[in-house]
Amino acid sequence: MERVFNFSAGPSSLPLEVLEKAAGELTCYKNSGMSVMEMSHRSKDYEEIIFKTNSMFYELMNIPDNYKVLFLQGGASTQFAMVPLNLYGKNMKADYVVTGQFAGKAQAEGSKFGEARIVASSKDKTFSYIPKLTAADFSKDADFAHITLNNTIYGTRYNYIPDTGSVPLVADISSCILSEKLDVSKFGLLYAGAQKNIGPAGLTVVIIREDLIGNPLSITPTMLDYSVHANNDSMYNTPPTYSIYMCGLILEWIKNLGGVDAIEKINIEKAGILYNYLDESKLFKGCAEKEDRSIMNATFVTGNPELDDKFVKEAKANGFVNIKGHRSVGGMRASIYNAMPIEGVKKLVEFMKKFEIENK
To answer: pLDDT of 197-213, one tens digit each?
Structure first.
């Protein structure tokens, strides 16, 4: 069977050449005589893998030396608790911008441990836009401020970085990590589940400024203390070894393409192809405000739920899978992460044009 074009929001498609390389090394990695899945995480062979993957994050994202890259587990959802447990300080206050379902979950989790103030929300328009914020909108006495840089479900993204003054800015970048250039120095902490853009499920990457490590709340469990993982090179316990290995292969793939600069240009081109058609179409309509459209997740509808279902069904029959919108909003969503080739987006648009003609 031929491979399909997988538009899943996550776990998502992986680069074919990465899968092929992993397949070639599956039963025997280099001269180790075993699979990476079988290796002790304390072995020299595996330490080489994890340390190289770590260093490639610094290289590709231009991460300053005063930041730590941590390889954790539990997904971004665990970070909803881990961030406040480690960053709440003397004021026990944080500011949250709620721009979607996951941003809302982060705020709800933060409210369990301290005051989690909602600075702004786009719920009034079904999260179809990103609020415009200035430094005056944020509390000067907050211990941190939290945003979700790209909203997977609703197809929106920040096209600017909010100014929070001296308050550390935290961002969930699960669905946009390494998709475009990002000035890490503007953030106190970044976190991402790997399964959308940088690997299979099981790995969570945290990039944290060193001065924010080491002062967790007294109730913080050992495994949720950033300092424990930072002091043990992300190997306090057994890390998600194979997911880290796969992540390393994807970072190599990005580097070979020309780095983040190159992948950003490709991603902008892919999104442009799809959005240009949506703007011209008489049948399909984009859901997000134009200026806040995500280049990773494009959401759209026909305006007729039955026709939406027909489109999803016929798309699948034609090799375009996982294009149904999130269960909470319906419609369609095409997730066009780094691994989605331009060819996949062009063929999807061709199919959409054909569907539009047949369903006028």
So the answer is: 999 999 999 999 999 99
